[in-house]
Amino acid sequence: MQPDPVVHLIDDDEAVRQSLAFLLTSAGFAIRTYASATAFLDALVAVQPGCVVTDVRMPGLSGLDLQRELISRRIGLPVIVMTGHGDVKLAVEAMKAGAVDFIEKPFQDETMISAIRTAFDRYARDARHSDEANAVEARLNALTVREREVLDGLLAGRPNKTIAYDLSISARTVEVHRANLMTKMGAASLSELVRMVLLSRTPGV
């Protein structure tokens, strides 16, 4: 059973942290607070799944710097950035880099709550996607060398006869390998097989 998602709140302003933590706790969210992006990264090994809510402009690492660091470490926590007046350009950069949302201060309580729910939904969807991709990768690794060669031919759109010619085997042997790899992959059709392989090769999964 997956643990409940946590909002990781990062802001160098203690008053903002306390106020926002009170709001989100009252709304039923589990909260962890950090005074800087560096403090959050230092705790990353023990960080629970959920989302990140961070101020975009902070001493040291900015919210955008933090987002880039999470991407480089392949940490799939959705990010919401908070921005003050004059920081919208930075927030737009964060959105282009994959942030779920940016919220301008001061904001309505429901605006933040709604953004966090959206972030949690994305996290759950990405987690399911990652689990499925890992399962597909395990099936691919169970294929024999010849089955992988036949698969590569199918993915390239080649008919069985062409694959047979390329591999110097009979068309009947290609059919056997094709049937075996379809069974191993759990694919009911060629289109489903292609979708599986594309899923396993999706960047960031």
From TrEMBL:
<keyword id="KW-0805">Transcription regulation</keyword>
<feature type="modified residue" description="4-aspartylphosphate">
    <location>
        <position position="55"/>
    </location>
</feature>
<keyword id="KW-0597">Phosphoprotein</keyword>
<dbReference type="Pfam" id="PF00196">
    <property type="entry name" value="GerE"/>
</dbReference>
<dbReference type="InterPro" id="IPR011006">
    <property type="entry name" value="CheY-like_superfamily"/>
</dbReference>
<dbReference type="InterPro" id="IPR000792">
    <property type="entry name" value="Tscrpt_reg_LuxR_C"/>
</dbReference>
<dbReference type="GO" id="GO:0000160">
    <property type="term" value="P:phosphorelay signal transduction system"/>
</dbReference>
<dbReference type="InterPro" id="IPR001789">
    <property type="entry name" value="Sig_transdc_resp-reg_receiver"/>
</dbReference>
<dbReference type="Pfam" id="PF00072">
    <property type="entry name" value="Response_reg"/>
</dbReference>
<keyword id="KW-0902">Two-component regulatory system</keyword>
<dbReference type="InterPro" id="IPR036388">
    <property type="entry name" value="WH-like_DNA-bd_sf"/>
</dbReference>
<dbReference type="GO" id="GO:0006355">
    <property type="term" value="P:regulation of DNA-templated transcription"/>
</dbReference>
<keyword id="KW-0804">Transcription</keyword>
<protein>
    <submittedName>
        <fullName>Two-component system response regulator FixJ</fullName>
    </submittedName>
</protein>
<feature type="domain" description="HTH luxR-type">
    <location>
        <begin position="136"/>
        <end position="201"/>
    </location>
</feature>
<feature type="domain" description="Response regulatory">
    <location>
        <begin position="6"/>
        <end position="120"/>
    </location>
</feature>
<dbReference type="GO" id="GO:0003677">
    <property type="term" value="F:DNA binding"/>
</dbReference>
<dbReference type="InterPro" id="IPR016032">
    <property type="entry name" value="Sig_transdc_resp-reg_C-effctor"/>
</dbReference>
<keyword id="KW-0238">DNA-binding</keyword>
